[in-house]
Structure of ADP-ribosylation factor 1:
Amino acid sequence: MEKLKDPTVWDLGGQDRLRTSWATYYRGTHAVIAVIDSTDRDRIGIMKDELFRLLPHEDLQNAVILVFANKQDLKDAMTPAEITDALSLHSIKNHDWHIQACCALTGDGLYDGLGWIAQRVTGKATS
């Protein structure tokens, strides 16, 4: 398998006004990682809207989608199943996707999620 050359990672989070510029970073993208605050029920709909806004972009046609369900260490966290439903992940048919429970503070689940991506993008040529 061919090794990916010079992998680049962009953090595209931010306020509404910055989201219009996200598409300038999509070319050559192999994976999209969405990090969800599992305790933030009020904004899960915003994440769903943004996810479904970017998925049809032609430069993301072959990208896999990883959703990190962060803050799973907190008692009021939504489960990965609840987040899957809230984001309508099962309706995504044109992309491989995976949801991974994690805790950024302890690192739990992070390697599992990144390993899932590595299994799917290894050998893909960059554009």
Summary: The CA atoms of residues 2 and 123 lie 4 Å apart. The chain has one domain: 26-121.
